[in-house]
Amino acid sequence: MKRSFSSVDIRSLGLVAAGSGLIAATYGLVRLAYGLFLPDVQAELSFTAAAAGLISSGASVMYCLGAIVGFFVASRRPRSLVIAAALCASAGAAGMAASPSTAAFAAFAIVSSAGAGLASPGLVSIVQRNVPAAADDRWQAMVNAGTGPGLVAAGILALLLLPNWRLAWFIVAVFAIAIGAAVLGLDRPRSQEAANINSSGPPVPPGSWFKEHRSIILAAFFLGAGSAAVWNYGRTHLVDAGASEAASVAAWIALGVGGTAVIGTARLMSSRAPRTAWTITTLTVAAATATLALAPDATMVVLAACSAFGWGYTAATGALIAWTTHIDVARAPAGTSVLFVILVFGQALGATAIGALASSSGFAVAFLVASAMTLAATAVPCWKRAPLGQPGVPVH
Predict the structure, then answer these.
(1) Which domains does the chain carry?
(2) What are phi and psi of 113, to 5 degrees?
(3) Cis (ω within 30 of 0) for the bond into 189?
(4) pLDDT tens figures, 154-181
(5) In 3D, which of 313, 325, 321, 322 has the Cα closest to residue 280?
(6) CA 39 to CA 242: how far, in whole Å?
(7) What is the pTM assigned to this prediction?
């Protein structure tokens, strides 16, 4: 018996590691690495910043479509979502690597972003049915933290391979399909009951479920809007302040290091109520964004701020998963899909607003406004405390 439990624990750790790897591939190495490799891609394929912006917008729309599919499918077909996520990320990366023209690159870049939208809800469901319920928040946070290692890996690839961005994307394509296969191989639900934990009930939650999520939906929107400054204009802001290419890539790696640190703090943060975790993490993001606004020319300060931002943002998205899980565990995959769509929608609108403000008033002012947006996410009235006393009670 002891040996059996031990092997289950080892397999659970393997699944968490593989799930984290799939998040690393779909988010850190594909969706977010677009901006990292963009200058070298533009130099070779000769397309404008406006075209790059259109590609980014199309990728955000495709991400949302993937997450919406996850909203309807994750509870019943999580393995199908993992397969689709790995295929979209891998095919998209390989297509970008082989693209002979801007049009081809744009098409594959947009398709690749669907992988991230599909991966998150599918992995929430798979983790739920494979690990003990008592540790679910911690495991979910560790899987979600895969964005950090993905960002680090992307930065390392950039330092080693650029301007050879095609080889970098081919490496990402191979990794994405391999890690997706690893997740499928390790997915063995603890019992039939665990396998069916999310398969009951209508595919669309009732109105009361959405009512319970009103405050967290608004909070996710403000976090998305506020975080858009660093994700979209962080490197540009640093370069404008005098940072070298190597220093700006190092800052990108620091974002990933901070995100990776979430794995080490997962146990501590999962022991906090979701409201407390949300407050801590969003305040960290706000402070880091303000620091980058005020001291973009101080290298060590920038690296520390980027590390703090990476930790705060990644841990905050984990808090979103914990929040919706505490509201209704059976619909946690659907909740994750909704919240991540709202987060990306906020980033899309925030990127436009912050970009316009930066053009008229400078990056320092724009980043301070972004910090204020994130503070708004912290201040949004939180959910009723009753559901948190009985986590996982379905909303009818």
Answers:
(1) 1-193 (1.20.1250.20), 205-382 (1.20.1250.20)
(2) -70, -20
(3) no
(4) 999 988 998 999 999 999 999 999 999 9
(5) 313
(6) 17
(7) 0.82
